Amino acid sequence: MGVSTILDIIGSIFVGGLLLLILFRLNTSATGTLYNSNSELNVQQSMISVVEVLESDFRKIGYCKDWTKIPDPSKSILYADSNSIKFLTDVYNDGVVDSIYYYIGSTSELSNSPNPRDRLLYRVVNTEQAKSSNVGITKFTLKYFDALRNPINENPVSVPALISSIQIDVQVENTEAFDSVYTVAFWRQIRLAARNLSNR
Amino acid sequence: MGGKAILIVVLGFSFIFLIMEKNIGSATTRTVGNMADYHANITVHNVAVSGANIAANKMYLDESWKDGYSNIDYQGGKINVTVDVLDAFKQIIRINSVGTYRGITDTVQVTLQPSKFSKFAYYSESEGAGMIWWTTGDTVWGPFHTQDQMNIDGSPVFMGKVTTKDPLNLRLNADPKFLGGFEQGVDLEMPSNNIGDLKATAQNGGKYISGQDEVYIEFAGDDIIYKYLETTWVKKGKKKKKVTEWVTETIPAATFAPNGVIFVDDAVVNISGTVKGKYTISAGGNKSDDGNIYLEDDIVYETNPLTNPSSQDMLGIVAENNVYISDNSVNSNGINIEAAIYAQNGGFGAENYATRGPSGSINLLGGITQKIRLPVGTFNWKGIVSGFSKSYRYDDRLMSSFPPSFPSTGFFEIVSWYE
Fold first, then answer.
1. Which helix (H) or strand (E) covers residue B366, if one does?
2. Domain check: are B283 and B371 in the same one?
3. pLDDT (tens digit, 9 = 90+) per residue, A28-37?
């Protein structure tokens, strides 16, 4: 084995090693990108599933199939603060007045989740057990406006009948992250005005 | 040998990356697709809501409109609207607006009923040409409307929805509390002849009275005591003498006015008593005192709706001119009124309000719709000098029910919106 052969081997090992290092780095990067793409998809799907339920419920504030059962819909919001709201509606569209209570839990409830910020958003119909699932909600805030479109800054709102429209902010993150980089999706409903709140 | 191995490794990784790239591309496409689906759902919802709004506006302009819309292009989608009559007698109508966009459909249902003036706790055409100000301490329970500019100073509280035709006139630092919402630009003029329907209804299944100058009607639970002047010719010797005397009849209410509508034409009507059931009593006429209704004594419900919200008792008092509290001894220590009051060309006031002496409080459970705001008393810094103080409370049942044939605003109102 001559010197040139040894140099060939060393050179090829060096070049091969470099190539492998590049490939491993590329692999890590590709895996991260794939993970993040899937996370983004999951987060957006979670966001939309939450938002569709929220929009459907909030649009029906003060609604009842038998409208005489809520003669004054402006009194339909029973409680409102920046993280929770309780209102009257007709969940099953059966002419029976129901109440819905939305509130967000604390981060400590999901201490087993790798994401330190995720929480549960609860939906309680009448006196049924609170329902929720961990879809990675990290923010659920409500802002209220009166009939003259001025913000109501009290928290909780002492006179919920003042509320004429609502701004809803929801932020969803994935519950686990690649390299501690969480994918975030943010949704804001600006001035959702439930039609029944002021129809009489 | 080494070169071949590296080639295999590179090819292997390339294959893996190819699969990864396909998955990344797929995830990205699905993410975009997910948002596109959400956008489509929002769009189709907006299309359906727009259809409902367009139809509701059409119905507002033409209450006989029932045609609906078929395949109207809107925002890249289609609008189809149908109009159903849910209750022909009560004229309850439902608009069904179906939006279609990219194969997705969404439906919005809007239920409407004729709007009655009885729903107002307070209605006025004039707010006293800038003389009347709503201020701190004023509270109005129930819906409020004025055709005039609404003057606000301080922080009055309006528990029901407030609508005005003209913009608010807010004094510096005014902070009104509209607990039932506020809407400006609502033109809801009081029709000039809004009691014609009442007359027709009274003539067909109710009680229509004419040819009298003055009548007394006392509600007495299941009965109505009707007092009127009767002229007879009495034979005195060879001559006949015309004798006019008051006649009092007690008639079962269900027989007196089966449909609950009593209309007295060209006369003064005096009322009092305890109402059982649903009635509207109306006075028409324009000569001198005709078309005025006088409250001779308390007029209350047999079943108090405040203690029993399921009470079926309801009264409408509709005058072509004014509704007055009579200046008599029984009304000298306050009066209880449970009714929706409507004064087409005048207002609600107290007879001889400036000379009758302090008369206690008007305890009203119901609402007042009037063209002109009339005085009920005079006051100074010590309190009442003459007439009455006011204690008005809204009857919540008037939000969803009304006395028979109570004057209509001529428009429909939305009572339920489902989306």
1. strand B358-370
2. yes
3. 888 888 888 8
Residues B207 and B63 in one domain: no
Which residue among B6, B119, B400 sits closest to A19, beta carbon to beta carbon? B6
Count of the separate structural domains present in chain B:
2
Task: With respect to residue B298, please indicate whether it lies within any of the assigned structural domains.
Answer: yes
Segment B164-180, tens digit of pLDDT: 998 898 888 888 988 88
Mutation test of the interface with chain B: which of A50, A148, A191, choosing the one with the most B Cβ atoms within 10 A?
A: A148
Looking at chain A, which residue has its C-alpha nearest residue B42? A52
Q: Does residue B194 lie in a domain region?
A: yes
How much is the ipTM here? Answer: 0.84
Residue-wise DSSP of A61-98: TT--SSGGGSS-GGG-EEEE-SSEEEEEE-TTSSS--E
- CB nearest A74 (choices: B16, B34, B161): B161
The answer to whether residue B168 sits within a structural domain is no
Instruction: Report percent pLDDT > 70 for chain B.
Output: 98
- Parent domain of B197: 120-125+189-409
Same domain, B394 and B259: yes
The beta-carbon neighbor of B180 closest among A27, A34, A161 is A161
Q: B40 and B102 in contact (C-beta within 8 Å)?
A: yes
A28 part of contact set with chain B, CB < 8 Å = no
A178 touches B: beta carbon within 8 Å: no
Contact: A41, B416; criterion CB under 8 Å: no
Q: Which of B73, B91, B114 is the last residue of a domain?
A: B114
Does A156 sit behind a cis peptide bond, omega within 30 degrees of 0 on the bond before it? yes
Give a yes or no: residue B262 inside a domain.
yes
Whole-model pTM over 0.80: no
Hey, of A5, A12, A41, which one would you mutate to test binding to chain B, going by the most B CBs within 10 A of its CB? A41
Is the pLDDT at B49 greater than 80? The verdict is: yes
Q: In sequence order, what are the residues at sequence separation of 6 or more whose Cβ sits closer than 8 angstroms to the Cβ of residue B119?
A: A200, B142, B143, B367, B398, B399, B402, B413
